[in-house]
Records
---
Amino acid sequence: MKTILVSILILVITNSLFSIYNSTKLYAETAYSNGVTLIQGRVYDKETGANIESKIIYINMKSNDTIQIAKSNSSTGEYTFVANSNANYGLKMILITNDNTIKEVILNIKEDDNYKEIKLDIEVNQNQNCLFN
């Protein structure tokens, strides 16, 4: 009797794990069937070359929706963002540094089913009291 119960339990667990694996695989294939664009770089001070921590707001200019709000690394100034490439749209990046300097960068994201990378280092004129550099 114990052998039968153990066999049934193993069968149930195996089927559950197989089902979870297939669901995860299907989700991953669906999520990445359209291309993505990896945007990464460094935020730094134009005069000193020092790395800068900044808040980065990513906005889809076609829909005017905020996609994400993130920060660049406080030590290295590095940031990374993954943009969907399932349609053509403008991506606006608004950077706000700790001293409230604001910098706006606009990228064109083109519809593409492939993975691609954009390296974009952004220089900021700190302590400059203008809205956009």
Note: The first strand starts at residue 36 and ends at 45.
---
Amino acid sequence: MKDRLRLLKLVLIGLGVCLAGRIAVAENIDPANQGLKYAYGENVGWFNFKPDQGPGVTVTALGLTGFAWAENIGWINLSPVNGGGVKNDGQGNLSGFAWGENVGWINFRPTGAGVHIDSKGHFIGKAWGENIGWVSFNSTGAVPFGVTTAWRRALQAPAMNAFGIVVLGIGLCLVPIYLRRVKGAVRSHTSVGLSSAEDIG
């Protein structure tokens, strides 16, 4: 009976940890609650990526999910079933399309523009909607605004060409040889030191 209770406790704790992780991910727009949750459409006004009502938007390494709210045009679906949704390449470069029932498709990588997430979680750039024009994700102008996320891109290992791989391989092969020589030199130096000490004593 005690074993079953322990097992039940472990399952409940594990479930709690999983749910806590999902909740944290679901709320990753404007994590510091500084009002950095707004994009601006030149012809349609503000887009709220963390609205008080509704699910809001979640950023992951694969893409954006959920809904943004725009007072003048309604809900914008960042992950529509048809059309693929807004993708993230894992480094913060966004592409693909969001869908607004009242305005159609919004392209996150139009020719000559696009949106990316920088290393601090700030959305930078512009998206394009055929029916609404440009949607800006950041501005430091007279009315500063922006969208931030708690998501951060993964660090990439530096690229290595064939020469770098060969040098690294040779270095890794030489380290054990060097260490054996150093270890041998320390032993021979120590034994010489001991015999000298014995001669003195």
Note: Residues 162-200 form the longest helix (39 residues).
---
Amino acid sequence: MHACQVWRRPLTLSFAGCIGWLLSSLIGLALLSACTPSLNWRDLALAGGARVMLPCKPERLERALPLAGRSVMASLQVCDADGSSWSAMAYELPDAAQRDEALREARRLLAANLGAPAAEELPMPRLQGLATTSEARRLRLQGQRPGGGPVQVEALFTAQDRWVFQLVVMAPAGTASPRSQAAVEEFLGSLRGSAGSPS
């Protein structure tokens, strides 16, 4: 198996397990020094009609996510570039009324899996063509990878209608630079609805 290849296998996870699987995927990519190309931005479609700009060619993964008594498919695109791991996840809820609860739970579980004592809330970017909910958040967290060293994470959580979207950038702690932060801003601000144009 190539060092940059992500192992694929159909799998059903709890919501907490799905967040843990996402973090494991990101951490695994961040540790692969052979897979750190320079930024190469591309405009990609997400499930639910949204689009996003990623700075590297992603692996596309799907996992069954048990939620509200039924199984929904979580679609993930994840890649590694410039010493950071980048991911965009989307999944459809059975009912749009569940989206605020789902966003709160996603934020809580990300912090819990990182062992982050607190999250710093940052201003949400303006997302083109995407009407978001009051529970949409952008967060910065400092935490630990399982059994390893410290990491820094920036994440965006939002939803439209029945679709939930989660963007995450993870890097070893202390590696932020003006260049890398500009790339994070570009990535998190690029999420948009189908009517939006690239950032």
Note: Helices lie at 15-30, 99-114, 178-188.
---
Amino acid sequence: MKRRTLAALLILVVAVLTTWYTRQTAPEREVLAPAHVPDYFLRHFTITRLDPDGEPQDRLSADYLVHFADDDTAELEQPEITLFQEDGPPWRIESATAHIDRPADQTWMRGNVIVQRSGPTIEDTEMVTDHLLLHPEANTAETDARVTITRPSSRMTGIGMKADLNRDEIALLSEVRGEHVSR
């Protein structure tokens, strides 16, 4: 019986010492951040988001979307975003590419960005710029690039722009030039 106890005690001591030695001499494992790899993609799609009353809030269409799960972002090709308004026609925004950062409620539109709104009860509006930061939840947009705003009766250009699309308020920030077109 003493032999078995001694043998069991010896095995236990060897196991403890082996575990301790392995932990002391093993290299520290580097904790890697999750890889920025796509988890899904869509081609030629349209997604409509509804408000709490079931009415369309906004619509996103694009030729291609690739989504990344690690940071909940997406890259799009040929996107078109429609922001529906309670009073009046929607705003339509299109560009060559876009980057959507959902946690920050930011959509970066890049390359020939065109923002349009037209309807029977409002003056048609078209804004053209190289890039635009859109906040879809707040219906606001901004850029630090050159912007051209065209309406039937006027044409304005400037550098930098802030827009509240809910209120139809657009402010050019610097080097503003305009011309009035008489009908």
Note: The longest helix spans residues 2-25.
